[in-house]
Amino acid sequence: MTRTSGTLYIVATPIGNLADSSPRSIDVLRSADIIACEDTRTSRTLLAHHGIRARTVALHAHNESEAGEKLLRALREGSNVALVSDAGTPAISDPGALLVAAAHREGLRVIPVPGPNAAVAAYSASGFVAESFQFAGFLPKRKKNSFKELDAPWPVVLYEAPHRVLETVAALLEHFGPERELVIAREITKKFEEVARMRLADAPAWLAGPHRQDGEFVLVLGPGDAKRPDLAEGERVLDILLQHLPAGEAAKLSSKITGVPRKELYAIAVKRTK
User: Fold this and answer.
1) Which residue ranges does the chain devote to CATH 3.40.1010.10?
2) Residues of the chain with CATH 3.30.950.10
3) Quick one: which of 58, 59, 98, 187 could link to 215 by a disulfide (CB 3.0–4.6 Å)?
4) CATH topology of domain 119-221
């Protein structure tokens, strides 16, 4: 990196309430030569609110490679670039990670400007006491066994869109049972913000309330019970065998390999293959 190279700033922006902009983030955006936006039209509201007139370019999922190369060229030539997403912290379930990785590979300076983040905001308001949590972001379309990796002894944070939230909650209920707790955070920092903690059994009814399926959602699944080490290994072997064998045979062989009771593994196998 030469002394004339520019800096790539990763700037967190409000997820709803414009008052959440930090003084530092405003200063960085105001002084940037280029602001790379997930959607320039969305970012225009924030920039206009603070009287920022910097040059903006679009950097989204469909043009990140092409637009990223142009931004890298600008950085090499000494321009400072501020990367923002539509809301929250860039490159977390949003575009930008490819540009950041490329900047690191070239030895360019990368500086985060921390601020709003929907996952952290929802987790902080969940009340789940844990030494760690898992961020799963947006889950793929529902597939068989798609929730098994979320069955952990720590909270799991998910993002979900309004048209899928009821389906997702129903699937969580089916997989984890009625007593597992869930926090639903919708429209965080916006006018109709709600954060509610409940049993999974009560979540579908809560979402059935007026306008409760509107807006953007963060779901925080409460921690599950810690698994015995032998059971965790039994499930790992079982999952491999289920790719090739029927449930009964897979459970029997997994039991012989790991020592976990066959009956216990068979019950898991049946659930996995429903």
Assistant:
1) 7-116
2) 119-221
3) 187
4) 3.30.950
Judged by DSSP in three states, 35 sits in strand
CA separation, residue 151 to residues 87, 107, 147, 154, 155 (Å): 29, 39, 7, 9, 9
Which homologous superfamily is 7-116 in?
Tetrapyrrole methylase, N-terminal domain (3.40.1010.10)
pLDDT in tens, 19-64: 999 999 999 999 999 999 999 999 999 999 999 999 999 999 899 9
Whose structure tokens read 């997702």?
168
CA distance 170 to 155: 18
Residues ≥6 apart with Cβ < 8 Å to 252: 262, 266
- Total number of residues shown for the chain: 274
C-alpha span between 28 and 81 (Å, rounded):
9
| 194-199/181-186 β-pairing | antiparallel
Q: Which run of H or E residues covers position 7?
A: strand 7-11
Q: Which tokens sit at 189?
A: 């920092």
**Residue 145 region by backbone torsions, left for phi larger than 0, else alpha for psi between -120 and 50, else beta:** left
pTM for this entry: 0.80
Best CA proximity match to 13, nearest among 158, 159, 118: 118
Structure tokens at 112: 């985060």
Q: Which two tokens stand for residue 230?
A: 């032998």
